[in-house]
Amino acid sequence: MNAHQRLLDHLSADALDEADRSHAAGCPECRPLLPDQRESTAPPSLEAIHARSLEALRTTSVRPWRRDAWLLAGLNAVVAVGATAVLGGARWRASTEARPRLALVGVLLFGTLTLGGMAALAPRRRHSLLFLVLALLLPLGLIFSGQGLMSPLSAMQALPCALNIILIALLPLAATLLLLRRMAFDGRRTAALALASGATGLFGLHWHCMDGTALHLLGFHALPWLSLAAVAVALRRLLPTQSHVP
Amino acid sequence: MERFVHGEESAFSELFARHAPRLHGALRRIVGPAAADDVLQSTFLSIVRARGRYEAGAPFRPWLYAVGINAARDHLRRHRHEELQDPADLPERVAEPEPLADPGLSRVVEQALAQLPNNQREAIVLHRFEGFSFREIGALLGVSETAVKVRAHRGYERLRVLLAAHREAP
């Protein structure tokens, strides 16, 4: 009877002795058969990682991504409506003829800043890509909404528009960056989410700004909005990542 | 996976036992043996903390590997950044490729893999060693299937050159 056979016989008879244990310690085939040796077959590093992961599982609760998306959509909506209330609706009151266009683009902007964030936060990357493509068409909508409202401002007079867009979007963008730290860096997703949050500034100005020229709307509304997204991507790249999930 | 998402420890342990050793091997080939433990730990802590981003019904293994690849990329990016923080640390000239000295075949292949650009190494490790199709790799890396094929093709070409050089070495 060889040492393997002897160990198997003793194991089935629950009669393991020192000779069996010393054979199992040096035999890769027999070692896993011993109950007290089974645990040690995994590399020690894996055991430690398993233990730390279990500890994390005990101390963290599940956080569905949809809840974060709704929270961000809610924050964006509150900021956008609040900014509109503070800035006032001079543009809306100025022309009755332009109201249908203003209302249509206003709805698009509101959809961007609420549903856009949800699409960008979805785990599937194709949703953020689709939203990004649609969002980049938004400047055309701004130009469309400006038709019939021509009160050209000088560059100095127009500068507050750009500043307002940036200031209004600061809080939603900060929240966006905090959320993005909880997932792996993805430039496309970051840009999409920053465009959604940056649209809060566009929305506030949409009802207020009297300059409907294409040059003003592109240079002092759309350009600061796009620049915010570029800055957000650069900032996100610098921030440490808390979780690497897509 | 559904049970793990709801915090069931036995379900997590089952997933860990099934996937961790193999993922560890893949990460070893991507980031090197010294960093594989850290990256594996980041991977599993990530899926535990952000399990709310898992989509019900989606296959677990490609998702886990996507997280692992993201963790590996983050590690490599931070590591490179740390290495280059002090300008005095910069080498005066680019080092020659390391000779493939170890006689063990798997060790030789690992050393050759380490000399590939990161995106080519990822494509080869996932395709050759982990058995993912090019389509699956594209989905988990977030690039097109064609892009993965190009990376893998270039990687295999370079690998052939490196292994041929090893064979010809005295």
Provide a descriptive summary of the structure in words.
The complex is a heterodimer of chains A (246) and B (170). Chain A is mainly alpha-helical. Chain A has twelve helices and no strands. In chain A, helix 5 packs antiparallel against helix 10, helix 7 packs antiparallel against helix 9 and helix 10 packs across helix 11. The longest helix of chain A is centred in the C-terminal third of the chain and has 26 residues. With 170 residues, chain B is mostly helical. Chain B has eight helices and no strands. In chain B, helix 2 runs antiparallel to helix 3, helix 3 packs across helix 4 and helix 5 crosses helix 8. The chains are: A mainly alpha (246), B mainly alpha (170).
Overall geometry of chain B: globular
Structural class of chain A: mainly alpha
Shape of chain A: rod-shaped
Element-by-element helix/strand order of chain B: HHHHHHHH
Number of strands of chain A: 0
Largest sheet of chain B: none
Helix content of chain A: over 70%
Strand content of chain A: under 5%
Write the layout of secondary structure elements.
The complex is a heterodimer of chains A (246) and B (170).
Chain A: H1 3-12, H2 18-26, H3 35-38, H4 44-59, H5 65-87, H6 90-94, H7 99-121, H8 125-135, H9 138-146, H10 155-180, H11 187-206, H12 214-238
Chain B: H1 2-5, H2 9-31, H3 33-49, H4 60-83, H5 105-114, H6 118-129, H7 134-141, H8 145-168
Which descriptors apply to this entry?
heterodimer; A: 246 residues; mainly alpha; 12 helices; B: 170 residues
